[in-house]
């Protein structure tokens, strides 16, 4: 299999942690899209947001354009990547798009709010974001994996999809 694996879902759902483990298991490269955006923009995510959310989203789309052209990578996307249809269209053909669905309560146990620009107004924002984005995650993904147990269980679920379908 040469396709990428694109992990989408709410911030704090486990995309980066699962992505690193998955990349190792598959002997794929791992790319955290937020880190990649910082690299190509030569600026931090929080500074890009300070200009405007639109500024950040434009850099995110540029990252999607570039990353959709590579192969054999596990890519952990930012939570809002689904806000622009073009982002998901770019990945649709060369990637297996997996929605990591994790209950908000579990996310709130783990997340460091200070490192999340969109959560600067409080944790309630996470519930609002889920309400706004949940249907989009479901509409854009090829597969959905519930991450409400151990990391091993989530990885096993993803590997089962990969092994059965590809």
UniProtKB/TrEMBL annotation:
InterPro entries membership: P-loop_NTPase, Shikimate/glucono_kinase, Shikimate_kinase/TSH1
Pathway(s): Metabolic intermediate biosynthesis; chorismate biosynthesis; chorismate from D-erythrose 4-phosphate and phosphoenolpyruvate: step 5/7
Gene Ontology MF term list: kinase activity
Cofactors (names): Mg(2+)
Binding site for Mg(2+): 16
Keyword vocabulary terms for this entry: Amino-acid biosynthesis, Aromatic amino acid biosynthesis, ATP-binding, Cytoplasm, Kinase, Magnesium, Metal-binding, Nucleotide-binding, Transferase
Subunit description: Monomer.
Protein name: Shikimate kinase
């Amino acid at each position: 299999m040469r396709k990428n694996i694109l992990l989408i879902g709410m911030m704090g759902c486990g995309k980066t942690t699962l992505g690193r483990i998955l990349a190792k298991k598959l002997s794929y490269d791992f790319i955290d899209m937020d880190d990649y955006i910082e690299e190509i923009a030569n600026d931090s995510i929080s500074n890009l947001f300070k200009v405007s959310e639109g500024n950040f989203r434009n850099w995110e789309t540029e990252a999607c354009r570039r990353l959709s052209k590579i192969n054999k990578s596990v890519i952990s996307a930012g939570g809002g990547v689904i806000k622009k249809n073009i982002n998901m269209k770019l990945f649709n053909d060369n990637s297996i798009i997996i929605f990591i669905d994790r209950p908000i309560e579990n996310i709130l146990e783990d997340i460091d709010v200070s490192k999340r620009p969109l959560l600067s107004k409080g944790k309630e924002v996470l519930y609002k974001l889920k309400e706004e984005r949940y249907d989009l995650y479901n509409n854009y993904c090829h597969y959905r994996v519930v991450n409400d147990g151990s990391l091993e269980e989530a990885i096993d679920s993803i590997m089962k999809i990969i092994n059965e379908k590809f």
